[in-house]
Structures are given as C-alpha cells and as structure tokens.
C-alpha cells in the first residue's frame, strides 16, 4: 500500500508538471512569434522537450512504484524492477542536470547580449554629448 501511495503521488506530481510545462510553452510560443532570435527559440523549445521528457519519466516511475505489489518476489523479477527504477531515476537526474546547465548557458548569453547593448548605448550617448558640446561651443 505504501508504494501505491508513492506511485499515486508521483503520478499527480507528473500531471501537474506536464500541465505547467504546456502552459509555459503556450505562453512562450506566443512570445516567440514576435521574436526573431533563432537561438532563443531553439533554447526554449529544447527546454520544453527536456522538461516534458522528465515529467513523463516521473509518471512512469509513479506507475512502477504503484505496481510494486504486482512484482513477484523472485530475484530476477525484482532485479529487473529495481533496474527500471534506477534507470528512470538516473534519466530524470540527467535531464535535470542538462536543464540546469542549459539555463546557465542561456543566462550567460543573455547577459553578454545585454552588456553589448549597454556598451553600444553608452557609445551613442557619448557621441551625442560630444556633438551637443560642439554645437554649444560654436
């Protein structure tokens, strides 16, 4: 019964995560229609796919946990069952690590783009001030 409750909790969590990812993707798709940055589009799409895969795997883990009582208490069956649990858990962990790494890379890229834009604006402001000072001095 304990494993069935854990499985149910994982299934509910996975359902909520999938719903959240779909809503976020719908909102971002609307934003992407007006944006021409292909790298940003690819990054958001890849993030969506990774998160949906992780959520789906959490749902499969929930099914595995829920079906624990159905697994015969034989060594081979338990070994296969535990191997499936470990493999699914490692896959979710791997996707989470990739997602975190991609977030760091995307943030660094956005920061460098922002810094470049700030430098361009400062340069334009400096030129405009010099032009105004020349006009005043003439």
Task: Note the quaternary state here.
Answer: single chain
N-to-C CA distance: 89 Å
Structural class: mainly alpha
Strand content: under 5%
Quick one: overall form?
Answer: rod-shaped
Quickly count the helices: 3
Task: Specify the helix fraction band.
Answer: over 70%
Radius of gyration, in angstroms, nearest whole number: 25 Å
Let me know the number of strands.
Answer: 0
Taking pLDDT < 50 over at least 5 consecutive residues as the criterion, the unreliable ranges are none
Largest sheet: none
Average pLDDT value? 90
Order of helices and strands: HHH
Summarize the model shown.
The chain is mainly alpha-helical and 138 residues long. It is 90% helix and 0% strand.
Descriptive report:
The chain has 138 residues and is mainly alpha-helical. The protein has helices spanning 2-33, 38-66, 75-137. The longest helix is centred in the last third of the chain and has 63 residues, at 75-137. The mean pLDDT is 90.
List keywords for this structure.
138 residues, mainly alpha
Helix-strand blueprint:
Elements: H1 2-33, H2 38-66, H3 75-137
Helix pairs in contact: 1-2, 2-3
């Amino acid at each position: 019964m304990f494993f069935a409750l854990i499985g149910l909790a994982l299934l509910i969590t996975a359902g909520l995560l999938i719903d959240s990812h779909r809503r976020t993707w719908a909102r971002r798709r609307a934003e992407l229609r007006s944006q021409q940055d292909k790298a940003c589009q690819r990054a958001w799409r890849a993030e969506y796919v990774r998160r949906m895969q992780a959520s789906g795997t959490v749902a499969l883990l929930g099914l595995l946990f829920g079906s624990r009582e159905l697994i015969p208490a034989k060594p081979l069956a338990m070994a296969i069952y535990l191997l499936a649990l470990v493999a699914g858990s490692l896959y979710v962990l791997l996707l989470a690590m990739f997602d975190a790494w991609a977030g760091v890379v995307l943030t660094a890229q956005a920061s460098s783009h922002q810094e470049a834009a700030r430098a361009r604006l400062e340069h334009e402001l400096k030129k405009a001030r010099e032009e105004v000072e020349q006009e005043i001095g003439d």
